[in-house]
Design a protein that fits this description.
mainly alpha, 0% strand
């Protein structure tokens, strides 16, 4: 794979990570916390992969907006998912 393919994959995963947060909050609002946590962990994994692929594209000397968009969206997705997972763990621990 070349740098452009890694950058495109990073951008897709980064955007999906951010969109996944809001979509799962809407769709799984009436479901138990265990199911929501699994969905949030999947979003967290997508954000982490977006950051990894953006760094791989950078190492292959790809310069472009797709790499930067994937990196930034990946960081935003990881931050949001990390906060939500910590809040879910806190909620589950309060029982």
């Amino acid at each position: 794979m070349n740098g452009k393919q890694f950058a495109m994959t990073s951008m897709i995963l980064g955007i999906a990570s951010v969109a996944w947060d809001f979509l799962m909050d809407l769709l799984l609002s009436d479901v138990s916390n265990g199911t929501v946590m699994v969905a949030e962990l999947l979003g967290l994994a997508m954000g982490i992969l977006a950051i990894i692929f953006a760094n791989k594209a950078k190492k292959l000397d790809y310069v472009g907006g797709m790499r930067m968009a994937g990196f930034v969206c990946g960081i935003i997705g990881v931050a949001i998912d990390g906060i939500v997972v910590m809040l879910d763990l806190q909620y589950l621990a309060s029982y």
